[in-house]
């Protein structure tokens, strides 16, 4: 990996850490930024994707949705492609849950492989993190993961098929 690619990801890791600095995961103890860091590690080490821009998007995938960061902040710091990918991974929190999820499913179904791989890493990490949740929380994670996989399955980009199979296997193991 080039020095520029490494610098891009280091800047993204710092950006995500600053953006999520006062947030915790649902267990109330883990700094939230552990989630995007783990999602990035899943993209690289579980799915085998080493494209620095995709890894950067994985690091930033929740910044627009969960912080004061906006598209322009991401575009200026990391480029328009990364900003588009992060925006596609962002739910429109102005909508109520039902319409928000339906729109998000539509976006995921139309997304290119970088977005799909980042979303699959997000799902993988959320499923892995389910052990810290209540039974109800775990059931919600499984339900949402199933819905997202169902939304992506019909139009799944070839570049994301192996990652999809890994997440499907993790989900199936959790359902048993």
From TrEMBL:
The keyword Transport does not apply. Keywords: Kinase, Transferase. One of its GO terms (molecular function) is kinase activity. Gene3D superfamilies: Hypothetical protein af1432. InterPro entries: MESH1 (IPR052194). It holds the Pfam family HD_4. The keyword Repressor does not apply. This is GTP pyrophosphokinase. It comes from Fimbriiglobus ruber.
């Amino acid at each position: 990996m080039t020095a520029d690619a490494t610098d891009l990801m280091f800047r993204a890791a710092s950006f995500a850490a600053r953006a999520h600095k006062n947030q915790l995961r649902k267990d109330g103890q883990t700094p939230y930024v552990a989630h995007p860091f783990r999602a990035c590690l899943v993209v690289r080490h579980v799915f085998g994707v080493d494209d620095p821009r995709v890894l950067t998007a994985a690091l930033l995938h929740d910044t627009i949705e969960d912080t004061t960061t906006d598209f322009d902040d991401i575009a200026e710091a990391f480029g328009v492609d990364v900003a588009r990918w992060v925006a596609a991974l962002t739910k429109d929190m102005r909508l109520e849950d039902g319409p928000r999820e339906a729109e998000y499913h539509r976006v995921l179904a139309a997304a290119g492989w970088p977005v799909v791989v980042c979303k699959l890493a997000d799902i993988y990490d959320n499923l892995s993190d389910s052990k810290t949740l209540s039974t109800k929380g775990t059931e919600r994670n499984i339900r949402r993961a199933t819905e997202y996989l169902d939304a992506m399955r019909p139009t799944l980009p070839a570049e994301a098929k192996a990652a999809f199979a890994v997440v499907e296997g993790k989900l199936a193991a959790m359902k048993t």
